[in-house]
Amino acid sequence: MTIVAPPRKMLEVIVTSLSDALEAEAGGADRLEVVRDLSAGGLTPDLALVAAIRSSVSIPVRAMLRGNPSMQIADAAELEKLQREAAAFSQLSIDGVVLGFVVNDSIDTSTLREVAAAAPDLKITFHRAFDILPNPMEAISTLKGVPMVDRILTGGGSGSWAVRKARLQFWQQHASPQIKILFGAGLQSVSDSAIEEVHIGRAARNPPEHHAPVCRAKVAELKGLLA
Asked: What is the CATH number of the domain that holds 61?
């Protein structure tokens, strides 16, 4: 009888500095998301920082592409800046970028495609902008039409864990095989076999606050909960 091993769970950690990145990798992180200003939900980090992290760690690195704290671009100048930053990040051979644009309660597909076109070799995580969309199934279908998008970051909506778990499983079925759901609600109930990829920010820090540094012991503890 063939025994099928369960999927290996992935832990993605948000980092804002080179020391954060080194601590996260030492603690067992599987992927990094590099951002600036974690208190604002994460904005585009400095190119030099991303380059330093990319050359110092062996795990995949994704960088935030977000020019302001909202989920909507301000104007054409911001779009052009995002395109320039995407192109620059692509030269670093990172794993991908993290972005999300919304307009009129729907995905801003025009902006998404224009930014993606500036770095066609990079994968895309569509971030928490997903959680403010009123029609997630429509959003998933739209994102499946953008080949570079391979992750959707979401907290699973409101309700009890049982309700959110059922919702996440339903979304994952609809998103497969092109896209994986990345669970971004700390480590609440993540020992459940339904969750394959987990995204954490403050939970990896000691103390668990935006300004605190990533702690390898905390990352290792969290990684252990996913085993």
From this structure: 3.20.20.380
